[in-house]
Amino acid sequence: MNLRIASGFSAGIDPYPPNAELLGSVNLPFVIVADHPGFVGASVKLIQRMLINEVVGLAVTKFFFNENAVEVSPKDAVRYYTGTLNDDFTFTPEHHGVLDPGGWEGFYAPNVMEDGKGRKLLWAWMPEVARGAFEDAKGWAGALTVPRQLSLTADGRLRMDPVPELQRLRGPCERLSGLILCAGADEGDAALANAGSACLLQTRGRALELLAEIELIDANASFGFKLLHTDNDEECTVIVFEPEQRSFHVDRTRSSLSPSTHKAELRGEIDWAAGSTVKVHMLLDYSLLEVFAGYDSCLSARMYPLLEESDRVTVFARKGSVSFRSLQVWAIRSIWP
Fold first, then answer.
1. Per the domain annotation, does 48 fall within a domain?
2. pTM
3. Which among 36, 157, 29 is positioned nearest to 92, based on CA atoms?
4. 6: which strand partners?
């Protein structure tokens, strides 16, 4: 079919282009919808061009809510839908999920491009909203997420991977294998705050890449990671995975001693079955954290630790037993010479 679409940006205020772009005959299996609570049901007038698996797709990131074509990028979680665009231009969704629930706390105004290799790459803005009234973080306008390579799985779900070029920044690596953690072993340790059995890694730092392959031994198992923490957890950022609840979250309650920074918990979705083996991939760059949970769920967050010694890394089991088949932690080198 001949599909006419309007190209646009992913945030801001722009007029609706008078002439839509003709993309030709396409089969369209992929659509991302930016859901905005205040404008549910509003007419979508601006969309962004995207190519997935050599066919044209759409990333819907604009909502047209008056005749002046004002558009808005949602400040909360952006949902995606994959499915088929029918000949009558109706869309049949087949799968859906959250692109990234970070919102203003870490993931805003996503944009997509195709590079020279034909890869479909997504970036988003990680704004400074989470600093609140924290004066020491003033003067910055945020940063970008790492580029995420988009693809579709065999069953039509969205997959998001950090681009492999980031591996060039890997420095010294700490590797563990066969690590089994069982909750209850350290219940009397106040520093673990009911985290269960834990392993403090030798690696220290604020710029780290962590990649773990984990077997979920128990149906009720929950586990996680403590980053940017001191020896006594005076400051710490905690990432907890709860497969039984089909969710994971970033706990920033003690991420910073500053009372001004945001402390709200950020929560994402997972769908992991007991007995399965999953991967967790995290990129930490001082105040920036990106969590890839199985590569089909991502969460971006900002934290502002104050203490120089907030550089420890711990893995733990909070409930049940988990087996870390492999755990790798790299120090990330600076891109600057």
1. yes
2. 0.78
3. 29
4. none
